[in-house]
């Protein structure tokens, strides 16, 4: 492998617990059925409106989706500034850079909010590119992965995507890259059986090992 594309939320950024807790809080604030950690992990999916429909057990109205988005953002922002990197994120980035390879960051988090977080954690200098969602973009990760690889000029067959969601695996397959899915245990966004038949790692270091 020549290049690693890292996911942000739940992968390099250790915010799995915060994402789950913020969703639980958002559903409570919106007066919708209670969400538990187990339900979150059992129903997690992209895009987020589909995920919320699954948690609610019905198709939510546009107004309900909008209210959940506001409540979630309020709950998440309260937690965001104290969230650390995943325990072996820094050493994994250093090892890959030390091997003379390149890496980039691709997130489904809004770009203007992503950049200050990446800069605060002190890891921006590791990346050839840092891309989040721009101008109201939503949806699946595959088009964004394809765009970043095109802009960087990499042959997808020489690239490893490291993420933590089924959508990451789908994006990798559609774009022709290899992938490893990081499962964070209790704070993972997906139940582990969602990754059945996929390449799973229990640490980011294992993903780097697979690529070296």
What's the short version?
The chain has 212 residues and is of the alpha/beta class.
Integer-rounded radius of gyration: 17 Å
Q: H/E element string?
A: EHHHHHEHEHEHEEH
The total count of helices amounts to: 9
Per the CATH scheme, the topology name of the largest domain is Rossmann fold
Strand order of the largest sheet: 3-2-1-4-5-6
N- and C-termini, Cα separation: 7 Å
Identify low-pLDDT runs.
none
Q: How many domains is the backbone divided into?
A: 2
CATH architecture of the largest domain: 3-Layer(aba) Sandwich
Write out the CATH superfamily name of the largest domain. HAD superfamily/HAD-like
- Proportion in helices: 40-55%
Q: Rough shape? A: globular
Beta strand %: 5-15%
**CATH class of the largest domain, please?**
Alpha Beta
DSSP strand tally: 6
Largest sheet: 6 strands, parallel
Based on helices, strands and strand pairing, what is the structural class? alpha/beta
Average pLDDT reading: 96
What does this protein look like?
With 212 residues, this protein is of the alpha/beta class. It folds into 2 domains: 3-14 and 84-211, Rossmann fold, CATH 3.40.50; 16-80, DNA polymerase, domain 1. 46% of the residues lie in helices and 14% in strands. The protein has helices at residues 16-29, 37-43, 48-56, 62-80, 89-98, 111-120, 142-152, 166-175, 204-211; strands at residues 3-6, 102-110, 130-133, 159-163, 178-182, 200-201. It has a 6-stranded parallel sheet, sandwiched between helices. Helix 8 links the parallel strand 4 (159-163) and strand 5 (178-182). Helix 7 (142-152) packs across helix 8. The longest helix has 19 residues, at 62-80. The mean pLDDT is 96.
